[in-house]
Design a protein that fits this description.
Radius of gyration: 16 Å
CATH topology: Hypothetical upf0131 protein ytfp
Helix content: 25-40%
CATH architecture: Roll
Largest sheet: 4 strands, antiparallel
CATH class: Alpha Beta
Mean pLDDT: 92
Structural class: alpha+beta
Low-confidence stretches: 164-168
CATH superfamily: Gamma-glutamyl cyclotransferase-like
Number of domains: 1
Number of helices: 5
Strand content: 35-45%
């Protein structure tokens, strides 16, 4: 079992359930923050990245009791654009170790602060459609293949949403 610090979209209960395969309510979790870091938009994307920012703190959740297979699911979803790194997060019960997904060099950061509620009101619906398509491929293709298929996945998710919108 392993603890993850979630600073971005994976804090959303709907997305968490798609990616991890169980409800967020079914896992032990606590409010946490990663000091000296901030959650900002990836350059040109609605998705967040966490980056070092002196004097700031990235809010999030520390999630416990995740099985290795669940961590693998999350790593697959995050593809090769993120990598797991050890961190120490602050909670009301003190500092504790966890791991967090940090962007690779392939995913540059903007200076714009990322906010979960804004994402939930906007890009969430499309992101859920993408996540369902990605997780349907878990165990059948590699993360590199997900990266290569990204334009197709994004287009199909948009098409699925358009089809839903036009259904009476």
């Amino acid at each position: 079992m392993s603890a993850l610090f979630l600073f971005g979209t994976l804090r959303d209960p709907d997305l968490f359930a798609v990616v991890f395969g169980r409800p967020l309510d079914a896992v032990a979790r606590a409010e946490a923050r990663l000091d000296e870091h901030a959650a900002v938009h990836a350059l040109g994307c609605p998705y967040p990245v966490v980056v070092a920012r002196p004097g700031r703190a990235a809010p999030g959740l520390v999630v416990d009791d995740l099985a290795a297979a669940e961590i693998e699911r999350a790593a697959f979803y995050e593809s090769t654009l993120y990598e797991l790194r050890p961190v120490t997060v602050a909670t009301v019960r003190g500092a504790r170790p966890a791991r967090a997904f940090f962007p690779t060099a392939a995913l540059p950061a903007s200076d714009e602060t990322w906010h979960l509620p804004v994402w939930q009101r906007g890009p969430k619906r499309h992101a859920l459609a993408e996540a369902r398509l990605i997780m349907d491929l878990f165990g059948r293709v590699t993360a590199d293949e997900i990266d290569a298929r990204w334009p197709e996945i994004a287009a199909r998710a948009a098409g699925d949403l358009t089809g839903l919108a036009s259904t009476p």
